[in-house]
Structure formats: structure tokens, C-alpha cells
Amino acid sequence: MLKWKGALLALVVATPAAAQDLSISCRCVSGGANGELADWIKDSVIPGFEAAHDGVTVTLNEFAGGDEQLTQQLALDFSTGAGADIAGFDGFLIPNFVEAGLLKPIAELVGPEAMEWEGWSHISDGSKALMSYDGQPYGIAMGTDVRMIFARADLLESSGIDPASFQPTSWEELLEAARQVKQAHPDSFPLQLNAGVPMGEATTMQGYWMAILGTGESITDEEGRYIVESQGILDVLNLYKTIYVDEELGDARAQQLGDGRNRTFANFRDAKTAMLVEGDWFYRSVTAPGSEFEVAERDAKMTWAKMPAKEPGAGWNGQDFVTISGGTGWVMNPNTDAPQLAWELLAYMNSKEQLDAFQEFQPRIRIRDDVPVPTDAFLTETSSVLLPLTTARPNDPNYNAVSAEIQRMTEAVVSGSMTPEEAMARYKDAVTEIVGEDNTASLM
């Protein structure tokens, strides 16, 4: 019996330590949805990480369902101690998961040394906020976007505006350009600033945010309270009123139609709209060769400009120009058995080396300022100019409901059914009902 125990002990001592396994999950399937993402992980991330970590095996769990299904699966996994060590995640969801106790800050999971990662110095504060809550990073955004004014160079030129030097420095200069185009092309809709309920979050992000930031305000104040009454809100609503009601510089009907966003894309494609405020996706996808709204000879007929503040220096953080970004990225499973190793994998996925490699699979604006967009001068130029100016939506569980009220408020003004003052008053009541009076702020 003693001999058997000794032999067993010797066997245990001689047996190598068990190999460590890590896993990554994302809504990605090779040859299917987000196929480039799946291919990058399998062909670049996993081989590179395993080569540098002897005995570690990394697997990718490909998820083919929709976004809503993935959200439900992640909530179930994180609540039961299951799921991959690293998960693809929309920063939009972080507040809800944190409030439900389903996510932990990186520093809490890994330790304060994680905040010394070299990559943080290449990610702007606004971009870092995409995957943060209450000032603490819960993940790392992988890619992001920026918003700007897209312009038809041919329409500007035929209206007597030099497209090469086109850069409004105030709302009034933007409106003056629209008026000049309208005078030269009476049947046109020179300016598109998204409004209304049918466009959903595109109204809030491409329209309202791009205007409210120009007043020096945000949707929330420094304490995270929703601003429900302010001069900035009135200024934005009066801007909408000028564009769509008073001077008919925009296509008011399109803001109220179910397919209104596509109609605004068609207006731009068909040279009926000279200036359209949108995200870089408009260039990457909407107007790209072969798309439904392709702009023929795009690089000759399109240009871009920064969105100006209401007046120089009056924008968010005292800026002359403003923009806002959204983004998705990666979070660590709070139940991971190997938090340090999982962090090393997450950092490796977001290293310059690996994001440069991802550009070979799917070129777009990456979160790091040292990762250019290859063979795409437009995205490289716009990201380098606009990312230092950007901010992000508040990571707050009530944001979705408040955003819907913003859409209703803009629609009421654009449709002419309410004055800006009336629309703001209704917004105040609705948001107060959603978040409670203590979580609102009046600046008037």
C-alpha cells in the first residue's frame, strides 16, 4: 500500500502542469456575418498568441445569431459563470451589465498594472469612454467612427463655393452655404441634419449630438444628470427650425418617413443635397462603388468638412469643431479562471501589431492613433483630424429611453407641430418621468 502511494506521488510530481485554455467569443462566422473578424482571430490572433505563450490554447466560439440573441447569451453566461474569457461587446450595453453585476472593471479583475498597458497612451479619452462606465474601463474598443459634414463638391462649385476650401466655422456660415446652394438650385435640399423618430439613433447621433456639442453642452452634465432645459437645447431646436421649417433648406418630409434615411442618401447621390452630416460609414459603405447609393466618381465629386460649433470656441470643451464616436470592442468575462492571461490576450488583440494585421482583413478606423487605415487616404485623414475632438454617448442605463425622447423632440419641431419651447417642455417632462427629477438638470 505504501509502495502504491509512493508510486502515485511520483507520478503526480512528474506529470507536467495542465495546459491553459482560453476562449474568445464574438458575433462572427467565417464566410458569414463579420467573417473578416473571425478570419483575423483564427489566422492572426490565435497563432501569434499561442506562439508567444507555450502551453496555452486559444479557441474562437463563432456566434451566428443576431445582436439581441448575443446579448441574451452573454447575460446568461456572465450570470452563471459560463462563457468565453474574452467576449465581443457593444459599449452601449456596458451600463446595463454593470448595474446587473455582470461585468467588472479591468483594474479590479487584473490589478492596477493593467492600466499601465502601453496601448492606453494611443487611445484618446473620448475613445476610451466607449467601453467605460463611471470613469473605469471595462473593456477596449476595437474600432470606432467619427462624424462630419459630407459635401457634394460639384454642387458647391456650381453654387459659387470653392469645395477645396470649404470649411464653415460657425452654424451661420453653414447655413449661408446652404442658402447659396438653394439660390443656385431652387429644387434642392442643400442641408441634411438628421431628425425625427423613424431614423432612430441616427437622429440622435448624427443630428442632435452634432448640434448640441456645438453649443458647449452635452446630453448630460458633469454629474451625469440629464439636461432637460437649457439655452443649448433651444439653440439646437431653433437650428432645426431654420433648416426645415423657416427656410426649407432641408427635406422635412424625409425626416418623418419610415424610409427617410434612405431617402436622404438618395438625395445626396442624386445631387439634391449638398451637405449631409453623417458618420464615416457613409463613405465606407453607403456611397461606395457598387452600393445602392453609390456616388459616381465619388472621390472627385465628394469632399468633407468638420462640423463647426455654433460659434468659434463655443463647442464642447471650448472646441471650434465637434464630433462624436460610437464603437464596439471586447470585455473580459468576470468569471474567467485566468484573469492575468486573459488580459494579456485582450491587450495582444489590441496591440499595434494585431490591429495593423486586422487592417489586412477589414480596413477601417481603429481605436489606436498609431494604426492607420491602409490604402484609404480619406479614412486616414478624417480619423487623424477628428478623433482628437471626439466624445462618446453617456454610458447610462437610461440612455436608450432618453434618446427616443430626443428623436420625438426634434420631430415635433421639424414637423411644425410644436415650437422649440413647447418641444423642450415636453422633453423635460418625459425625461424626468424616465430618470427621476434628481437625475435631471435645468440650466435656465
Automatic annotation (TrEMBL):
It comes from the Bacteria. It is found in: Periplasm. The keyword Chloroplast does not apply. Pfam families: SBP_bac_8 (PF13416). One of its GO terms (cellular component) is periplasmic space. The keyword Signal applies. Keywords: Signal. InterPro entries: Bact_solute-bd_prot1, SBP. Residues 1-19 form the signal peptide. PANTHER family: ARABINOSE-BINDING PROTEIN-RELATED (PTHR43649), BLR3389 PROTEIN (PTHR43649:SF14). Belongs to the bacterial solute-binding protein 1 family. This is Carbohydrate ABC transporter substrate-binding protein, CUT1 family. It comes from Limimaricola pyoseonensis.
